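Sample intake sheet
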Amino acid sequence: MITVTTRPIGIARVGGSRVAYETRGYFRSLDTVFFTFLFPLIMLGIFTTAFSASGDVGPVGSQISVGAFYLPGMLAAGLLLSGLQNLAVDIATEKGDGTLKRLGGTPLSPVSYFLGKIGQVFVTGALQAGLMLVAAATVFGIALPTDPAQWFTFAWVFVLGLTASALLGIALSSVPRSGRSATAVVIPIVLVLQFISGVYLSFNQLPEWMQNVASLFPLKWMAQGMRAAFLPEEFAALEQHGAWDLGWVAVALGIWLVVGLVLSRLTFRWIRRDA
Protein backbone atom coordinates (compact mmCIF):
# COMPACT_ATOMS: atom_id res chain seq x y z
CA MET A 1 0.00 0.00 0.00
CA ILE A 2 1.34 3.45 -0.94
CA THR A 3 1.35 5.94 1.91
CA VAL A 4 1.39 9.73 1.72
CA THR A 5 4.84 11.16 2.44
CA THR A 6 6.82 14.18 1.38
CA ARG A 7 9.87 13.40 3.51
CA PRO A 8 13.01 12.40 1.54
CA ILE A 9 13.44 9.20 3.54
CA GLY A 10 9.84 8.19 2.90
CA ILE A 11 10.10 9.00 -0.80
CA ALA A 12 13.30 6.96 -1.06
CA ARG A 13 11.72 4.04 0.82
CA VAL A 14 8.73 3.96 -1.51
CA GLY A 15 11.07 4.27 -4.51
CA GLY A 16 13.12 1.35 -3.20
CA SER A 17 10.03 -0.82 -2.87
CA ARG A 18 9.13 0.00 -6.46
CA VAL A 19 12.55 -1.16 -7.70
CA ALA A 20 11.66 -4.75 -6.80
CA TYR A 21 8.18 -4.35 -8.33
CA GLU A 22 9.55 -2.90 -11.59
CA THR A 23 12.30 -5.54 -11.84
CA ARG A 24 9.80 -8.39 -11.49
CA GLY A 25 7.62 -6.82 -14.17
CA TYR A 26 10.64 -6.43 -16.46
CA PHE A 27 11.54 -10.13 -16.38
CA ARG A 28 7.92 -11.17 -16.86
CA SER A 29 7.87 -9.43 -20.25
CA LEU A 30 9.58 -11.83 -22.66
CA ASP A 31 9.84 -9.34 -25.53
CA THR A 32 11.49 -6.79 -23.23
CA VAL A 33 13.95 -9.38 -21.93
CA PHE A 34 14.88 -10.38 -25.47
CA PHE A 35 15.18 -6.95 -27.08
CA THR A 36 16.88 -5.12 -24.20
CA PHE A 37 18.48 -7.75 -21.97
CA LEU A 38 19.67 -10.53 -24.28
CA PHE A 39 19.97 -8.64 -27.58
CA PRO A 40 23.53 -7.27 -27.08
CA LEU A 41 24.77 -10.69 -25.97
CA ILE A 42 23.16 -12.35 -28.99
CA MET A 43 24.72 -9.76 -31.31
CA LEU A 44 28.13 -10.28 -29.71
CA GLY A 45 27.77 -14.01 -30.36
CA ILE A 46 26.73 -13.42 -33.99
CA PHE A 47 29.59 -11.02 -34.77
CA THR A 48 32.15 -13.20 -32.99
CA THR A 49 31.03 -16.34 -34.82
CA ALA A 50 30.55 -14.72 -38.23
CA PHE A 51 33.82 -12.79 -38.46
CA SER A 52 36.31 -14.81 -36.41
CA ALA A 53 37.41 -16.72 -39.51
CA SER A 54 38.85 -13.49 -40.95
CA GLY A 55 41.44 -13.37 -38.16
CA ASP A 56 42.36 -10.85 -35.51
CA VAL A 57 41.83 -7.12 -35.99
CA GLY A 58 43.54 -3.90 -34.99
CA PRO A 59 46.91 -2.18 -35.33
CA VAL A 60 49.85 -4.39 -36.28
CA GLY A 61 51.46 -5.78 -33.16
CA SER A 62 48.39 -5.15 -30.98
CA GLN A 63 45.76 -7.21 -32.74
CA ILE A 64 42.89 -8.74 -30.79
CA SER A 65 40.09 -11.17 -31.56
CA VAL A 66 36.92 -10.03 -33.28
CA GLY A 67 34.92 -10.76 -30.14
CA ALA A 68 37.21 -8.61 -27.99
CA PHE A 69 36.91 -5.79 -30.53
CA TYR A 70 33.10 -5.83 -30.49
CA LEU A 71 32.66 -6.35 -26.74
CA PRO A 72 32.95 -2.65 -25.71
CA GLY A 73 30.39 -1.55 -28.29
CA MET A 74 27.92 -4.20 -27.19
CA LEU A 75 28.35 -3.18 -23.55
CA ALA A 76 27.63 0.43 -24.54
CA ALA A 77 24.62 -0.63 -26.60
CA GLY A 78 23.36 -2.54 -23.57
CA LEU A 79 23.37 0.69 -21.55
CA LEU A 80 21.28 2.45 -24.19
CA LEU A 81 18.86 -0.45 -24.54
CA SER A 82 18.46 -0.96 -20.78
CA GLY A 83 17.99 2.73 -20.12
CA LEU A 84 16.65 4.72 -23.04
CA GLN A 85 14.80 2.10 -25.09
CA ASN A 86 13.43 0.16 -22.14
CA LEU A 87 12.06 3.15 -20.22
CA ALA A 88 10.85 5.09 -23.26
CA VAL A 89 8.74 2.16 -24.46
CA ASP A 90 7.69 1.01 -20.98
CA ILE A 91 6.52 4.40 -19.71
CA ALA A 92 4.78 5.26 -23.00
CA THR A 93 2.95 1.91 -22.78
CA GLU A 94 1.93 2.56 -19.17
CA LYS A 95 0.67 5.97 -20.20
CA GLY A 96 -1.29 4.49 -23.07
CA ASP A 97 -2.97 1.69 -21.10
CA GLY A 98 -3.96 3.95 -18.23
CA THR A 99 -1.47 2.67 -15.66
CA LEU A 100 0.07 6.10 -15.13
CA LYS A 101 -3.34 7.73 -14.82
CA ARG A 102 -4.23 5.29 -12.06
CA LEU A 103 -0.89 5.88 -10.31
CA GLY A 104 -1.46 9.62 -10.60
CA GLY A 105 -4.60 9.19 -8.51
CA THR A 106 -2.57 7.68 -5.66
CA PRO A 107 -0.19 9.41 -3.25
CA LEU A 108 2.78 8.01 -5.19
CA SER A 109 5.33 10.76 -5.75
CA PRO A 110 6.77 11.16 -9.28
CA VAL A 111 10.21 11.06 -7.62
CA SER A 112 9.44 7.64 -6.11
CA TYR A 113 8.18 6.48 -9.49
CA PHE A 114 11.40 7.70 -11.14
CA LEU A 115 13.52 6.02 -8.47
CA GLY A 116 11.73 2.74 -9.07
CA LYS A 117 12.28 2.91 -12.83
CA ILE A 118 15.92 4.01 -12.61
CA GLY A 119 16.63 1.44 -9.90
CA GLN A 120 15.20 -1.28 -12.12
CA VAL A 121 17.44 -0.07 -14.96
CA PHE A 122 20.51 -0.35 -12.74
CA VAL A 123 19.58 -3.83 -11.53
CA THR A 124 18.90 -5.19 -15.01
CA GLY A 125 21.77 -3.23 -16.58
CA ALA A 126 24.25 -4.64 -14.06
CA LEU A 127 22.93 -8.17 -14.59
CA GLN A 128 23.13 -7.73 -18.35
CA ALA A 129 26.72 -6.43 -18.26
CA GLY A 130 27.75 -9.16 -15.82
CA LEU A 131 26.23 -11.87 -18.00
CA MET A 132 27.93 -10.49 -21.10
CA LEU A 133 31.34 -10.32 -19.40
CA VAL A 134 31.02 -13.86 -18.06
CA ALA A 135 29.95 -15.14 -21.48
CA ALA A 136 32.76 -13.19 -23.15
CA ALA A 137 35.37 -14.80 -20.92
CA THR A 138 33.99 -18.34 -20.74
CA VAL A 139 32.14 -18.91 -24.02
CA PHE A 140 33.95 -16.66 -26.49
CA GLY A 141 37.42 -16.84 -24.92
CA ILE A 142 37.84 -13.06 -24.70
CA ALA A 143 40.60 -11.89 -22.36
CA LEU A 144 39.23 -9.32 -19.92
CA PRO A 145 41.32 -6.46 -18.48
CA THR A 146 43.61 -7.12 -15.51
CA ASP A 147 44.44 -3.48 -14.77
CA PRO A 148 42.25 -2.02 -11.95
CA ALA A 149 42.36 1.38 -13.68
CA GLN A 150 40.55 -0.10 -16.69
CA TRP A 151 37.83 -1.54 -14.44
CA PHE A 152 37.49 1.84 -12.75
CA THR A 153 36.95 3.40 -16.19
CA PHE A 154 34.32 0.76 -16.94
CA ALA A 155 32.56 1.49 -13.62
CA TRP A 156 32.20 5.26 -14.04
CA VAL A 157 31.27 5.04 -17.73
CA PHE A 158 28.67 2.42 -16.78
CA VAL A 159 27.14 4.59 -14.02
CA LEU A 160 27.14 7.85 -15.98
CA GLY A 161 26.00 6.22 -19.22
CA LEU A 162 23.20 4.20 -17.66
CA THR A 163 21.91 7.13 -15.60
CA ALA A 164 21.90 9.45 -18.61
CA SER A 165 20.21 6.79 -20.76
CA ALA A 166 17.51 6.18 -18.13
CA LEU A 167 16.70 9.88 -17.75
CA LEU A 168 16.63 10.37 -21.52
CA GLY A 169 14.32 7.35 -21.79
CA ILE A 170 11.89 8.97 -19.34
CA ALA A 171 11.97 12.16 -21.42
CA LEU A 172 11.59 10.30 -24.74
CA SER A 173 8.53 8.46 -23.42
CA SER A 174 6.53 11.67 -23.87
CA VAL A 175 7.04 11.63 -27.66
CA PRO A 176 4.96 8.57 -28.80
CA ARG A 177 1.29 9.40 -29.23
CA SER A 178 0.25 6.03 -27.85
CA GLY A 179 1.66 2.90 -26.26
CA ARG A 180 1.23 1.03 -29.54
CA SER A 181 3.39 3.50 -31.45
CA ALA A 182 6.16 3.57 -28.83
CA THR A 183 8.31 0.84 -30.38
CA ALA A 184 7.90 2.34 -33.86
CA VAL A 185 9.16 5.70 -32.55
CA VAL A 186 11.92 4.56 -30.20
CA ILE A 187 13.57 1.53 -31.82
CA PRO A 188 14.57 3.28 -35.11
CA ILE A 189 16.24 6.05 -33.09
CA VAL A 190 18.18 3.53 -31.03
CA LEU A 191 19.12 1.47 -34.09
CA VAL A 192 20.47 4.47 -36.03
CA LEU A 193 22.52 5.58 -33.03
CA GLN A 194 24.09 2.12 -32.77
CA PHE A 195 25.18 2.16 -36.41
CA ILE A 196 26.73 5.65 -36.32
CA SER A 197 28.31 5.39 -32.86
CA GLY A 198 30.81 2.58 -33.36
CA VAL A 199 28.77 -0.35 -32.06
CA TYR A 200 28.35 -2.41 -35.23
CA LEU A 201 30.81 -0.55 -37.48
CA SER A 202 34.35 0.52 -36.68
CA PHE A 203 34.03 4.19 -35.72
CA ASN A 204 37.24 5.30 -37.50
CA GLN A 205 35.92 3.92 -40.80
CA LEU A 206 32.80 6.09 -40.77
CA PRO A 207 32.74 9.36 -42.77
CA GLU A 208 33.93 12.37 -40.78
CA TRP A 209 30.54 14.07 -40.98
CA MET A 210 28.89 10.96 -39.53
CA GLN A 211 31.42 10.87 -36.71
CA ASN A 212 30.63 14.51 -35.96
CA VAL A 213 26.89 13.78 -35.89
CA ALA A 214 27.43 10.79 -33.60
CA SER A 215 29.45 13.01 -31.25
CA LEU A 216 26.29 14.98 -30.53
CA PHE A 217 24.69 11.93 -28.88
CA PRO A 218 25.63 9.97 -25.75
CA LEU A 219 26.09 6.50 -27.26
CA LYS A 220 29.25 7.55 -29.10
CA TRP A 221 30.81 8.62 -25.82
CA MET A 222 29.65 5.51 -23.96
CA ALA A 223 31.19 3.30 -26.66
CA GLN A 224 34.42 5.32 -26.61
CA GLY A 225 34.63 5.02 -22.83
CA MET A 226 34.04 1.28 -23.00
CA ARG A 227 36.74 0.91 -25.66
CA ALA A 228 39.15 2.75 -23.36
CA ALA A 229 38.31 0.25 -20.63
CA PHE A 230 38.60 -2.94 -22.68
CA LEU A 231 40.90 -2.36 -25.66
CA PRO A 232 44.70 -2.06 -25.68
CA GLU A 233 46.11 1.47 -25.51
CA GLU A 234 47.25 1.26 -29.14
CA PHE A 235 43.62 1.29 -30.27
CA ALA A 236 43.25 4.89 -29.06
CA ALA A 237 44.88 5.95 -32.33
CA LEU A 238 41.74 4.75 -34.14
CA GLU A 239 39.50 7.20 -32.27
CA GLN A 240 38.24 10.40 -33.90
CA HIS A 241 41.00 12.52 -32.34
CA GLY A 242 43.58 9.79 -31.87
CA ALA A 243 43.06 9.49 -28.10
CA TRP A 244 40.57 8.04 -25.62
CA ASP A 245 39.70 11.58 -24.39
CA LEU A 246 38.19 10.23 -21.18
CA GLY A 247 37.81 13.73 -19.80
CA TRP A 248 35.53 14.62 -22.70
CA VAL A 249 33.69 11.32 -22.28
CA ALA A 250 32.88 12.31 -18.68
CA VAL A 251 31.89 15.85 -19.70
CA ALA A 252 29.65 14.66 -22.55
CA LEU A 253 27.88 12.05 -20.44
CA GLY A 254 27.53 14.53 -17.57
CA ILE A 255 25.90 17.05 -19.90
CA TRP A 256 23.49 14.43 -21.24
CA LEU A 257 22.67 13.36 -17.68
CA VAL A 258 21.69 16.94 -16.80
CA VAL A 259 19.76 17.34 -20.07
CA GLY A 260 17.91 14.10 -19.40
CA LEU A 261 17.09 15.16 -15.84
CA VAL A 262 15.72 18.54 -16.94
CA LEU A 263 13.76 17.13 -19.89
CA SER A 264 12.28 14.27 -17.87
CA ARG A 265 11.14 16.70 -15.20
CA LEU A 266 9.62 19.10 -17.75
CA THR A 267 7.91 16.52 -19.94
CA PHE A 268 6.71 13.84 -17.51
CA ARG A 269 2.97 13.77 -16.88
CA TRP A 270 0.77 11.06 -15.39
CA ILE A 271 -1.44 11.56 -18.44
CA ARG A 272 -0.84 13.22 -21.81
CA ARG A 273 -1.73 16.90 -21.91
CA ASP A 274 -3.87 16.26 -24.98
CA ALA A 275 -5.61 13.25 -23.43
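Comment: The chain has one domain: 8-49+64-267. The radius of gyration is 19 Å.
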